[in-house]
Specification:
The chain is an alpha+beta fold. It has 2 helices and 6 strands, in the order H-E-H-E-E-E-E-E. The chain has helices spanning about 1-20, 40-55; strands at about 25-35, 60-70, 70-75, 80-85, 100, 105-115. The strands form 2 sheets. It has a 3-stranded mixed beta sheet, covered by helices on one side. It is elongated and about 55 Å long.
């Protein structure tokens, strides 16, 4: 399950951030592209394990995962199409000219921290 390695990488990033900032992270929000190969439920499931194994001091930190829509842009008509899966034909002009806009990203959106 590669979600565990993703969770461990996020924990490593949070640990480095806490060391630099000094405040305790309470929640981390991540955004993942539809084509990133991430199962958000599996990532949420392994999150406590990754915290316990790598950074028990962060055990209270929650994880929110937002899956981003897949955006396809037509090279012919310029229209964007939001979809759940890859398509070849533009629904606006009917041309086979769709190009993927992102979809494989995994981004830390923000980190909620304790009040000091």
């Amino acid at each position: 399950m590669h979600e565990l390695s993703i969770a461990e990488a996020l924990v490593k990033t949070l640990t480095a951030w806490k060391k630099e900032d000094g405040r305790m992270p309470l929640r981390v929000r991540v955004r993942a592209g539809r084509l990133a190969g991430i199962d958000p439920e599996a990532l949420r499931y392994v999150w406590p394990m990754a915290l316990a194994n790598s950074a028990p001091e962060l055990s209270g930190c929650a994880l929110d995962v937002e899956m981003l829509p897949l955006i396809l842009r037509c090279a012919e008509c310029g229209r964007d199409t939001e979809t759940e899966k890859l398509m070849l034909i533009c629904p606006s002009c009917g041309k086979q000219a769709l190009r993927r806009q992102g979809g494989r990203e995994l981004l830390i959106q923000d980190i909620e921290v304790e009040n000091v």
